[in-house]
Amino acid sequence: MIKKIPSASLRLGMFVDHIDREWLKNPFLKKQFKLVSDNQLKKFFDYQIEEVYIDTAKGLDVIQPVSPSEEKATAASIPREEKAGIEADPPAENLGRSKKVEKLYKNSYQATHRLMNDVRLGKLVDAKEVSRTVENLVEQIFDDQEALVGLSKLQDYDDYTYTHSLNVCIFCLAIGKALGYSKERLAVLGEGALIHDFGKMLVPLEVLNKPGKLTDSEFKIMKEHVIRGVAYIKEIPGISPDAIQVAKEHHERFSGKGYPLGLKENSISEFGRIAAVVDVYDAITSDRVYHRGMIPTRALQKIYEWRYHDFDPVLVEMFIKIVGIYPLGSLVMLSDGCVGMVVEGNIHNSLRPRILLLFDKGGDPLAEPEILNLAQNSSLKILHNVEPETLELDLKKTWNKYL
Ligand SMILES: [Fe+2]
Fold first, then answer.
1. If you measure from the C-alpha of residue 76 to the centroid of ligand 1, how many angstroms do you get, rounded to a whole number?
2. DSSP 288-353
3. Which of 15, 29, 33, 225 could form a disulfide with 199 if both were Cys (CB 3.0 to 4.6 A apart)?
4. Biggest alpha carbon distance in the chain?
5. Cβ-count burial of 64 within 10 angstroms (0-12 exposed, 13-18 middle, 19+ buried)?
6. What is the pLDDT of residue 206?
7. Are residues 358 and 340 in contact, defined by beta-carbon separation less than 8 angstroms?
8. How far apart are the CA of 197 and the centre of ligand 1, in A?
9. How far is the CA of 366 from the centre of ligand 1 (A)?
10. How confident is the model at residue 326, as a pLDDT?
């Protein structure tokens, strides 16, 4: 089937049928070809080709919005070996790990709160408190990354200003670890991430907390948080210049359309490029006064679409693998019609996590929710994500009640 799609939705494995553009302005020699390299994808962006026709009979189809075909759609980001086989049952005691992570998250949240309040009050923060907080998170990332990354979005703290800084720090650490950073390098990245939005504390509260869309002049004031934050951070003794890069560049965009400097591609530091991806992911998945956050799968699809234009594509792919296809707390429908919450991932096969069954086939809540290990049940599979609102379910409360 021939489909016209936005170039932003292209991915490797698709078959390009044709591009509506005269051949002189077309960077490709062949009219029809399969997408096999990032370089080819990049050309669509470089030559500002906005739409393209693909043939889904000869190559992959577009990633669909959350739907029964989601499993297939997200397959591009699943390592091939994960698709095969049923793996061994992870130990049940792992479920108890959430308590340890909850405590760490709470302590880190309180530290972030204290630090950011000091900024608001015009005090100079103590760099040692920043490094102590990050040190504990670095240890946890090496000890049990999945719990920290997964549970960071399930904690019941509703002050976005502080949770955002902490979540950005946690996600940055996970990417840094995947890039093979040493603990020392990770600590620098994490410190930069934790303080990246200090400048927001210098923005008037009526602008910072305004429910709804900002006016042009308010948005201009909001954007100043980068420059004001960097000026503040530079005054803190003991903060490394590399950490300052995170604050300085987290709103730069791969295409050069970000702010404040409009830096492009690799002229943005690796720290800045990492922070840009996770800053947006956390923002669009967070509940705010005026809107509900996207479910993780949909947010990852958006981030994937925005790669090249907004984000470094290599870091985007890495981040999708880290967060996983079905992150902890995701609500999913199974092939038998039951609905449950993902409570533990499966490093061998991310399509077969452990699930807390909450609703039966008829959609009625189970009196006693039970754990189902998909790794041990080959007759069932996940069909698709379910929006929590459709079942009037509060994921954070459900998590805290049963786990
Ligand atoms: Fe920011």
1. 30
2. -SS-PPPPHHHHHHHHHHTBTTTB-HHHHHHHHHHH-SS-TT-EEEETTS-EEEEEE--TT-TTS-
3. 225
4. 66
5. middle
6. 92
7. yes
8. 5
9. 42
10. 85
Q: Which residues contact 6 (CB under 8 A, 6 or more apart)?
A: 50, 51, 52, 305
Report how far ligand 1's centroid is from the alpha carbon of 248 (Å): 9
pTM of the model: 0.76
CA of 249 to the centre of ligand 1 (A): 9
Q: What is the number of other CB atoms lying within 10 angstroms of the CB of residue 27?
A: 13
CB 133 within 8 A of CB 112: yes
* Among 346, 166, 356, 174, CA closest to 274: 174
The CA 224 to ligand 1 mean position distance, Å, reads 9
From the CA of 378, how far away is ligand 1's center (Å)?
44
Ligand 1 centroid, distance to 196 Cα (angstroms): 7
pLDDT of residue 222: 96
Which tokens hold the place of 260? 């404040």
Q: How many CB atoms are closer than 10 A to CB 83?
A: 12
Cα of 251 vs centre of ligand 1, distance in Å, is 6
Tell whether omega for the bond before 6 is within 30 degrees of 0, i.e. cis: no
Amino acid in position 309: H
Residue 198 CA, ligand 1 centroid: distance in Å: 8
Structure tokens at 191: 């410190």
Q: Write the Ramachandran bin of 85: left for phi over 0, alpha for psi from -120 to 50, otherwise beta.
A: left
In DSSP terms, 116 is beta-bridged to none
Per-residue pLDDT of the chain (403 residues; tens, 9 = 90+): 888 887 767 777 789 998 887 665 677 777 788 887 766 776 776 676 778 899 988 888 875 533 334 333 333 333 333 333 333 344 444 456 678 888 999 999 999 999 999 999 999 999 999 999 999 999 999 998 988 998 888 887 778 989 999 999 999 999 999 999 999 999 999 999 999 999 999 999 999 988 888 999 999 999 999 999 999 999 999 999 999 999 999 999 999 999 999 999 999 999 999 999 999 999 999 988 777 889 888 899 899 999 999 999 999 999 998 888 888 888 999 999 999 999 888 877 778 899 999 999 888 889 888 999 999 998 999 998 888 877 777 777 787 777 7
List Cβ neighbours of 123 (8 Å cut-off, separation of 6 or more): none
